[in-house]
Amino acid sequence: MEVNRKNKLLLGLAAVALVLLGKLFYIQVIDDSYKKDASNNSMVYSVIYPPRGVIYDRNGEILVGNSVCYDILVTPREVTSLDTVALAHALDTSVDFVREKMQYYHKYRSRIGFQTQTFLKQVSVETYIKFAEQEYLFPGFRAQVRSIRDYPFNAGGNLLGYISEVDADYLKTHPEYRSGDYVGRTGLEAAMEEQLRGEKGYHIFLRDSRNRVQSPYMDGSEDKSAVPGKDIVSTIDAHLQQYGQLLMEGKVGSVVAIEPSTGEILAMVSSPGIDVDVLTDIGKHYKEISSNPRKPMFNRTVMASYPPGSVFKLVNGLIGMQEGVLKETDSYPCYKGYYYSGNHKLGCHAHSSPLMLKDAIATSCNGYFCYVLRNILENRKYSSTAEALDKWREYVLSFGFGRKLGSDFPSELGGNIPTSSYYNKIYGKNRWRFQTVVSLSIGQGEIGATPLQIANLAATMANRGYWYIPHIVKDSENYRIDDKYREKNYTLVDTTYFETAVEGMYMAVNGGGSAGGTAFAAAVEGLDVCGKTGTAQNPHGKDNSVFICFAPKDDPKIAVAAYVENAGFGATWALPVASLMLEKYLTGEISPKRKYLEDRMLNAKFF
To answer: How far apart are CA 37 and CA 46, in angstroms?
Structure first.
């Protein structure tokens, strides 16, 4: 028994010894990675940065490409002696700059170690050539060629976004990056960072006992080639984007255009925005841009929450029909230009009265839609106004309001659609009613929506009841979009009711019915434009101007929403912007009859 136990122990020890010997043989003979790790102190890795992927517009135009730039790098531990005057002259910089840099490296020498630092970014080709001829005089310094972004089209800095060098905070949460790497920070550059960035490569050199770089390691056989980033195709139409920027110049607000049949974003203009000329070296301009009181870095298309104003009447009208409290033949008065609700009166503009639904949409009657919301919230099938409001909210959310749409564009806000709980906190449970929230009838009060959501409403109307999640990247050879962008999102309102609302939008632009439309200036011969004006109250100044439209009526190719802050009536400012965008996209030019409108918008500057 004792002998048997001893034999088992010997066999076990022999097995362990064989495993260890096998592992040792593998490490020493077959796999040399451990050997490389052990010799890392004598090896220098020179990073090869890949060119980022190119960003194209929907028609193959390059929105963001690459060009060559030159940086000067330094490994402080390799700088044994330095003629600061000669180096400053070679790099076309000041002696003070060189001294300050070297003092910084000395102060943080233990933290920097043998890391290579960027000494100067984006020097001119002349400086690069001059330095290259004298590089041998400055041990520890070397020039590096890398690619930077190039912008053939001024197609919106906020849309395209910028790249910048990673900082310490970014490295804490993104360990896959290293100091000196660049990353997409905003816009498309950030949204598609994983596809655009590519893979870094490197050259390996040997270092001698005095830390001087010598020959390539193993004649370069262990070097790794950089892998370029993947190109992507955006949904943007570069020319339409440019045109939208021209129309919005000198104005504060947004214009968003969507292809209703796909949800593809055709244009996405935030004004004022960042000019593409500053994107190449955003750090140089960052302080100036960030201190601008008009916040050009703030992308209003997805980050601003506005009251949608009268364009929201479409939603209330459709909910009223779905709930069975409104028929298209129901007529309501707008008594002397006012709607009276208890001790409150809500004003309206001059038009004929009473009106039916289509005419109420065409003339944007406030009073009519106050009656509609009252009927929705006082519907007896609900036990309370609170229950009715929460059902109303459920309908509204199905139109894409009050939540993030799920776009592939970063930093999207969800907006706000109030709940009964919110009003209970403000007024007390069962202590508020329709009269308390009457402003919701006309898209005011606690409603907040982004311009992207308002444009999505235009696309939903064009599609007669459904929408695709708006997105900014197309399917291409290198990238397949998520299937969620191909799915139809139906509202909770039956599609059969939308035709009535669309007819009202058509009448707003093209006339018909018993009352004149508020959007007649948006009419374009042969395009059958449908539109809805909005004027949203603004506590900080003049009313905001809002307009949504789509065309053609029966086979929509484009839906547009324009939102101009502190501009007054929707028909005066937002309407021209949106309708000119629509005409430009569908016909390629502005008709002579509407040139006056284009000239007025191009010349109008609010700041």
So the answer is: 16
